[in-house]
């Protein structure tokens, strides 16, 4: 990844902390209310929540791991997918249990906690992980940029869909995006370190 992508993870972590500290403050409540009134009920946005549903994400992760295994027994890549998607989802559940923020009050609301948004965080994790792995095998720069643009766009739309259907506050979504990106970069750092270490050991043996 580009060098700027790594310090950006520190920025998004700070953003998450600021949101965690201030989501009950008046100015954030007003922000949530404004975003809800702007996006609430948008049927087009709501459609994108399907690609952030657990069953869809699990299927994509399993297919990705299967492809990595078939195309070269890439166990490191398979573990990377597990760390980003599976461990990232566990992290999301842990954070929800810590903050215990109630969801917006609507009829037939979900019973789980709201902060940070699971769809938003998991969407960032699985889409960026997929984009990262795909970009490893691409050569043409325009294709690589295109893959990342599509991944980021879809991740944003997944998060906005949760505001549109009143399942989350806007601050939940921002927190999900922020922590999702931070955890993604942590996993990338491990992945790239592991690759360098393996390459170094091969050179030493030769």
Question: How are the elements arranged and paired?
Answer:
Blueprint: H1 5-22, H2 26-39, H3 43-46, H4 54-70, H5 75-99, H6 118-137, H7 141-164, H8 170-205
Helix pairs in contact: 1-8, 2-7, 4-5, 4-6, 5-6, 5-8, 6-7, 6-8, 7-8
Describe this structure as you would to a colleague.
- The protein is mainly alpha-helical and 206 residues long.
- Helices cover 77% and strands 0% of the residues.
- The chain contains eight helices and no strands.
- The longest helix is centred in the C-terminal third of the chain and has 36 residues.
- The two termini are 28 Å apart.
Structural class: mainly alpha
Cα shape: elongated
Radius of gyration: 18 Å
Strand content: under 5%
Number of strands: 0
Describe the main β-sheet briefly.
Answer: none
Order of helices and strands: HHHHHHHH
What is the average per-residue confidence, as pLDDT, rounded to a whole number?
Answer: 92
Oligomeric grouping of the chains:
single chain
Poorly predicted runs are: none
Distance between the termini: 28 Å
- Helical element count? 8
């Amino acid at each position: 990844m580009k060098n700027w992508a790594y310090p950006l993870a520190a920025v998004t972590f700070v953003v998450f902390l600021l949101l965690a500290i201030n989501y009950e403050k008046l100015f954030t409540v007003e922000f949530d209310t404004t975003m809800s009134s702007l996006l609430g009920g948008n049927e087009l946005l709501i459609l994108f929540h399907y690609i952030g549903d657990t069953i869809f994400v699990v299927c994509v992760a399993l297919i990705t791991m299967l492809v990595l295994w078939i195309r070269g027994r890439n166990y490191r890549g398979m573990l990377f997918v597990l760390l980003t998607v599976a461990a990232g989802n566990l992290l999301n559940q842990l954070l929800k249990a810590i903050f215990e923020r109630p969801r917006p009050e609507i009829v037939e609301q979900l019973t789980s906690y709201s902060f940070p948004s699971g769809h938003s965080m998991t969407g960032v994790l699985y889409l960026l992980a997929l984009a990262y792995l795909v970009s490893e095998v691409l050569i043409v720069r325009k294709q690589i940029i295109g893959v990342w643009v599509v991944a980021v766009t879809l991740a944003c739309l997944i998060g906005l869909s949760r505001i549109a259907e009143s399942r989350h506050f806007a601050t939940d979504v921002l927190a999900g995006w922020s922590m999702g990106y931070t955890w993604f970069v942590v996993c990338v750092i491990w992945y790239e370190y592991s690759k360098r270490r393996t390459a170094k050991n091969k050179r030493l043996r030769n």
